Amino acid sequence: MPLFPGVDPIPLPAPVWLFKALELVTVTLHFLAVQAFVGALLVAIIWSLRGRASGNQALIDGSGIVVNRLPVLMTYVINLGVPPLLFAQVLYGRALYTSSVLMGAFWISVIFLLMADYALLYVLAGRAKEGRPWGWIGLSCLLLTLAIGYIYSTNMTLMNRPEVWAEMYRAHPQGLNLNTGDPTVVPRWLFMMTGGLTTGGVVFLFLARKKFIAPEAASQFARTGPILILLGVIGQLATGTWAVMAQKPELREALFGHVVFGSSVWLWVLAMLAMGAVGFLTLKNPATQSYILPGIAGAVLFLEVLFGAVARSGIRDLTLLSYGLDVWD
């Protein structure tokens, strides 16, 4: 018995390539917003806690500058997250709807976790403006964000495992399933979260050059940005390799044998190395006010995330194809 119906009951209203292109572009923008949020929040928490413990006003001011922008950044995370999810539902609905139902309790909880996260961001911003401590509340925001990311990683990998769906439904028809036993879940989640260091570092390079920021805080951004980029490059190369090696051998062979998907993996590696070079150059001269290196870093960052999204799409397409679902058919 086939795992998927031979014909999608809801035909596409436009060519597949158009939906794929729109999904890749919008998910790239969403990933950039998510990673910028995670990286900025993480560093702001560290700066706030360290600054208050040591009496370092530059760290406190820098953390306040970041936190005051997080509520706005979260709106981009949310709004840029809707289109790629809709395009994914159009293209992969037969798989994505099934996995969403199987883990329905966790999937619907994202709404409430996100509402709590968003509300706490305004608490953080308010306390920062008043000069009051907020580090531990910020840590709660970070944990909520990481939990939401893990739920998303779980669903996006569970949709690639139709062989376990029936058993999962029999075990927990209430929607209390998680994609346990899948070796790709954790590395994919960590890959996305460590990207926050890379993207956050690029954001800090731009903030360091803004005239409205006090020199002491700008200096903190200038010194921290390159370090974040280098740590992010190392972390993403490690977790990205882990995520690829965790795939089934036959899928890895198909991935690297595909002209587009295989090339995207190597282009992503080159982009990460270029990002590391930019991080090293800015680390050597953090005091410069030129926008040349930050501009290059921003362009390379966009390409890096885009190539990663193409490789991610390839893993999904080739996995589902092995079970009989050809998204291009």
Keywords, separated by commas or semicolons:
329 residues; mainly alpha; Formate dehydrogenase/DMSO reductase fold; 11 helices; globular
Overview of the structural elements:
This protein has 329 residues and is mainly alpha-helical. The protein has helices at residues 16-54, 57-67, 70-102, 104-129, 135-158, 165-171, 185-207, 215-245, 249-257, 259-284, 292-322. The protein is globular and about 65 Å long.
From the 3D structure, determine the CATH topology.
Formate dehydrogenase/DMSO reductase fold
Query: What is the CA-CA span between the terminal residues?
Result: 19 Å
The beta-strand count equals 0
Indicate the overall shape: globular
Rg from alpha-carbon coordinates: 21 Å
CATH architecture: Up-down Bundle
> What string, H for helix and E for strand, traces the elements in order?
HHHHHHHHHHH
Q: Classify the oligomer.
A: single chain
Tally of distinct domains: 1
CATH class: Mainly Alpha
Backbone structural class: mainly alpha
| Helix segment tally | 11
> Poorly predicted ranges (pLDDT <50, ≥5 residues)?
none
Query: Could you estimate the helical fraction of the residues in percent?
Result: over 70%
What would the average pLDDT be, to the nearest integer? 94
What share of the residues does DSSP label as strand, in percent? under 5%
Q: What's the story with the biggest beta sheet?
A: none
